[in-house]
Design a protein that fits this description.
five-stranded mixed sheet, four-stranded mixed sheet
């Protein structure tokens, strides 16, 4: 017996704005539209879901949704062109040995674009 996948669910206040962000800005494939929830495939494995019937929890201490890529700078340029709300540009973080940047989704969740340096 084993698991066949995983989905992390988050509450949203505007499902259409969330869909615009994750489908068009981050280019994630919509796996399933359940009406109140939309579930997206994450390349490399797993899924994330956003539901309008759940509370938004991104106020004081947001969870971080991290997407891994070898082209951090390319994603920064692409998201900047698409009007994403950025929290500074790409930088090295020696504490975790990563190169990354942060942006904010429509509900205030922190999104990180990152690559490991080791």
């Amino acid at each position: 017996m084993s698991f066949t996948g995983s989905i992390a669910f988050f509450g949203v206040s505007d499902l259409a704005a969330t869909d615009e962000f994750y489908s068009n800005k981050l280019e994630l494939e919509l796996y399933k539209d359940q009406g109140l929830c939309r579930i997206y495939r994450v390349p490399g494995g797993g899924m994330i879901g956003f539901c309008s019937h759940m509370a938004v929890t991104a106020r004081e201490k947001s969870p971080i949704l991290t997407f891994l890529t070898e082209d951090v700078n390319g994603w920064y340029a692409r998201l900047n062109e698409r009007g994403a709300v950025m929290e500074g540009g790409p930088k090295s973080n020696p504490r975790f040995n990563i190169y990354h940047f942060f942006l904010v989704d429509p509900d205030g969740y922190t999104v990180e674009i990152q690559r490991f340096l080791d």
